[in-house]
Amino acid sequence: MMILHDFWRSSAAYRTRIALNLKGLDYRAVPHHLPAGAQRAPDYLALNPQGLVPALQLERGVLGQSLAVIEYLEEVQPSPPLLPADAFDRAMVRAMALTVACDVHPLNNLRVLQYLRGEFAADEAAVTRWIHHWMALGFAALERQVEAHSSAGRFCFADSPTMADLCLVPQIYNARRFGCELAAYPRLLAIDAHCRTLEAFRRAAPEAQPDAPA
C-alpha cells in the first residue's frame, strides 16, 4: 500500500489526498507535525530531502511535490481523469493549478511566514497583509480564468473535477483560515462550495484527518 507523508492542515497534502480519493486508491497516511518541525527530522529528510509534505512513498521510491505526485497518479490510474483529453485544455488546467501551486501557495506556507517573522521581524499585522496581498492577486487571475472555462460554475474547467479544483479548494480553506476577504471571487466560492459536497473532497478535508485537533 502507498504511504502518504502528510499533515492535516497542509494545503499541498490536502490536494494530494483529494486526488487519491478521486482515483479510488488506497493509502496509509503518516502524519508529521509541521509546526513542531517534524519534517526536519533526520529520518524524514532521508526519505524526502526537501523536508516538505506531502511525500508519496512507493515500492520504487519516494515522490515529493504535490503536483508531481498528482501527475504520477494520473498516469498510473487514468480514470477518472484529472486532466482533459485535448492538449490545449490540459495546458489550461495546468495553468490554473499552477496559479495556485506556484504563485499563491508558496508565499503563504509555514516556512515563508516563519522566515518573515524571524529574519525580517515582521509582526503579525505585516504577515497578514503579506498573505492577503498574494492571495488576492492569485484569486483575481483565477476568477477570470474560471469565467472563461467553467461550464456550469461547478468546477474550474468544464463539468468534472480537475487538477485545478484540487488546488483551488485547499487554497480557499487557507484563505478563510487567514481571514482573507473573498467576496470579489463569486465563481471560485461557488466551485469551492460544490466541490466540498463531493465525498472525495469531504474525506480529504483537514478536519477529517486523524491528526487534526479534536
What does this structure look like?
By secondary structure, this protein is an alpha+beta fold. It folds into two domains: 79 residues, Glutaredoxin; 114 residues, Glutathione S-transferase Yfyf (Class Pi), Chain A, domain 2 (Up-down Bundle). 54% of the residues lie in helices and 8% in strands. The chain contains nine helices and four strands; from the N terminus they run E-H-E-H-E-E-H-H-H-H-H-H-H. It has a four-stranded mixed sheet, covered by helices on one side. A hairpin with a 2-residue loop joins strand 3 and strand 4. The longest helix has 26 residues. It is globular and about 45 Å long. The mean pLDDT is 97.
Radius of gyration: 17 Å
CATH topology assignment of the largest domain = Glutathione S-transferase Yfyf (Class Pi), Chain A, domain 2
Number of domains: 2
Q: Which residue ranges are poorly predicted, with pLDDT under 50 across at least 5 consecutive positions?
A: none
SS field, number of helical segments: 9
- Overall pLDDT score: 97
- The spatial strand order of the largest sheet comes to 2-1-3-4
Structural class: alpha+beta
Largest sheet: 4 strands, mixed
String of helices and strands: EHEHEEHHHHHHH
Beta fraction: 5-15%
Number of strands: 4
CATH architectural group of the largest domain: Up-down Bundle
CATH class placement of the largest domain: Mainly Alpha
3D shape: globular
The share of residues in helices is 40-55%
N-C termini distance: 27 Å
